[in-house]
UniProtKB/TrEMBL annotation:
Pfam families hit by this protein: AA_kinase
Family to which this protein belongs: Belongs to the acetylglutamate kinase family. ArgB subfamily.
Compartments in which it is found: Cytoplasm
Residue intervals of the Aspartate/glutamate/uridylate kinase domain: 26-262
Pathway membership: Amino-acid biosynthesis; L-arginine biosynthesis; N(2)-acetyl-L-ornithine from L-glutamate: step 2/4
Catalysed reactions, as listed in the record: N-acetyl-L-glutamate + ATP = N-acetyl-L-glutamyl 5-phosphate + ADP
Official protein name in the record: Acetylglutamate kinase
Alphabetized GO MF terms: acetylglutamate kinase activity
Major subcellular site: cytoplasm
SUPFAM superfamilies: Carbamate kinase-like
Top-tier EC class: transferase
Length: 300
């Protein structure tokens, strides 16, 4: 980290109890396309994930790639549009989504992890029957799927072998038909099925903002009830809605905390997990759970 030695020593002494608490625990991290567009930060984010793995925390990475899919659809002259934050996915679009996410973005991330000194295995839902999909049943959005089941055994085996699983949000149904699933949704369901300690969504805003135009209006701590209210009252809009919804679902299924933070800000992942104050929005099941069970001074 680029900081003076005193600050570094403070961070290290603060981080140690968190590292001890989370050792052996699974942390599911979703690296969104909006954050990944900061090419210069990608290697740094992935180095931080390798660091977590080196100290004994078990990161599982789910990646997005919406902007990269858009750019390839444009190159191929295939028009695209979104309904409720979900890409309308016909047969031709599905083919491009799978090629870009599974063939390109996934392998780039695996390579960057390897260059950072870690070892990663790239998978999509089809591999090892990891995720089975089903249609959302909305004709107007085509092959957009939802998770029908998850088989976490392969992920557990990889984690036990010190590998970092890197997962694309493409999965097939019982007939082999591919579906395009929102990557936040996949991350939330995986976190629940792996009994993860944390679900972390890296995006392009500091977290949930009271005013999306004002980056200083960060909501630092929120429980499920308040998170629902932020959606109902329209504070949380657009692409932030599926994020908050999947955090709520993961918390309701036993994940202890969910975090939304800016993946483009230096070392945001480590600062969020390993310091008392954190840098993003932390979502917890209830206000009570915010005060118990965390290492450090419990300031958040
Ligand atoms: N209350 C809010 N706080 C923060 N961001 C918000 C809020 N409401 C809507 N947003 C929007 O949500 C976007 C993040 O969603 P999205 O673009 O889908 O990201 P990703 O590619 O990481 O999945 C932000 O860039 C912001 O424009
Ligand atoms: C159904 C749906 O919308 N799928 C997404 C999958 C990728 C994704 O979620 O990427 P981000 O995290 O970068 O948004 C898409 O096609 O863009």
């Amino acid at each position: 980290m680029q900081c003076d030695p005193l600050t570094r020593a403070q961070i290290l002494s603060e981080a140690l109890p968190y590292i001890q608490q989370y050792q052996g625990r699974v942390v599911v991290i979703k690296y969104g396309g909006a954050a990944m567009v900061h090419q210069e930060r990608r290697a740094e984010v992935l180095r931080d994930i390798v660091f977590l793995s080196c100290v004994g925390i078990r990161p599982v990475l789910v990646h997005g790639g919406g902007p990269e899919i858009n750019s390839w659809l444009q190159k191929l002259d295939i028009p695209f549009k979104f309904v409720d934050g979900l890409r309308v996915t016909d047969g031709a679009t599905m083919e491009v989504v799978e090629m870009v996410l599974v063939g390109k973005v996934n392998k780039q991330i695996v390579q960057l992890i390897s260059l950072a000194g870690g070892s990663a295995v790239g998978l999509c839902g089809r591999d090892g029957n990891l995720i089975k999909a089903r249609s959302q049943g909305r004709a107007e959005i085509g092959f957009v799927g939802e998770v029908s089941s998850i088989n976490p055994n392969l992920i557990q085996t990889l984690l036990e072998g010190g590998q970092i699983p890197v997962i694309s949000s493409v999965a097939a149904d019982e007939t082999g038909q591919a579906y395009n699933i929102n990557a936040d949704t996949v991350a939330g369901e995986l976190a629940a099925s792996l009994g993860a300690e944390k679900l972390i969504l890296l995006t392009d805003t500091p977290g949930i903002l009271r005013d999306p135009q004002d980056r200083s209006s960060l909501v630092t701590l929120v429980d499920i009830e308040t998170a629902r209210r932020l959606i109902q009252t329209g504070v949380v809009k657009g692409g932030m809605i599926p994020k908050v919804q999947c955090c709520i679902r993961a918390l309701a299924q036993g994940v202890r905390a969910a975090h939304i933070l800016d993946g483009g800000s230096p070392h945001s992942l480590l600062l969020e997990i390993l310091t008392d104050a954190g840098v993003g929005t932390k979502l917890v099941p209830s206000q009570y759970s915010a005060q118990v069970g965390e290492a450090g001074n419990g300031s958040r």
